[in-house]
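Quick one from the shared queue. A colleague (R.T.) flagged Luciferase-like monooxygenase as missing a structural entry in our internal table.

Convert sequence to structure tokens.
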Amino acid sequence: MSLKLSVLDLCPVPSGFTPSDAIANSIALAQAVETFGYHRYWFAEHHNTAMLACSAPELLIARVAAATSTLRVGSGGIMLPNHSPLKVAELFRMLEAMFPTRIDLGLGRAPGTDPITASALRRNAEDSDNFPQQLADLVGYLKDVMPEGHPHARVRAAPMGVACPPIWILGSSTYGAQVAAANGLGFVYAHHIVSEHAQEAMHLYRDRFRASALGQYPKAMLGVSVICAETPEEATRLAATADLTMMRTRSGRRGEPVPSVEEALAYRYSPQEESLRQYNRSRIHIGSPDQLRESLGALAAATHAEELVITSTIHDHAARVRSYALVAEALAD
């Protein structure tokens, strides 16, 4: 593929199934996309939701890395303010030691949940406003370059002597682009969350990139929501699940699993909910392989993305696997 393809897995829990089923689906999907030629498989971090089983991405990374052989596996992302930088450094050094040269560390600063849950996770309200220092501390532990005079300068992340995995900054605004560029890190823009600023953020990242010990040249990816089927009509039908799932998420209703197509089509949206559904729909690429070859290709060209990280909210596991297969075929050379 001239345009690399990767997966962002939120480990959705389909209605009628269990979190254990969702995790088994993720393992099976990773093994399938490896045969389709996908490059990476990343897990997101979300909390206090019945829709998703990805509260501990580091555990899912280890499980999928063990079940595959060529995929890079990582986080998309670890929400750094939720964690101690030292603990993140130790977790990812351990993963790198277990699966050398196959681990990615993607980082975000959003909570991955609602404000009350974030306060339970973080305990310290200052954590949410201190991302640059947390990032500096994490890099210090991973590269063994904690500055002299730092209160934890003598602390080393274990296991020691392990290479620093590639670090990526995830963002849905220009802030993440600026942080990634200033530190010589890779950048992933979350088009699937906020589509409006994709071109601006990706261009700003490349324009302001400064080489560092962490990266000598810019590396830019785009996170996109995609639903593909053999026909436009079937893709649109499958997208009903994503419509209702995202509407519930945006309105704070996280207590229900991912609905089936039938459940989603039977739902009656209020006028306010329908407006939100329409906005959410504008951020999803839905269609046949030919349609997605055109729309995804145009988006990648406009943003100069080198790689697409695809997330697909589809209730039926087989249809979800098929969607990734069709996208790979559509964008193959």
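Residues 4-231+286-331 form a domain with the TIM Barrel fold (CATH 3.20.20.30).
The mean pLDDT is 95.
Added to the table.
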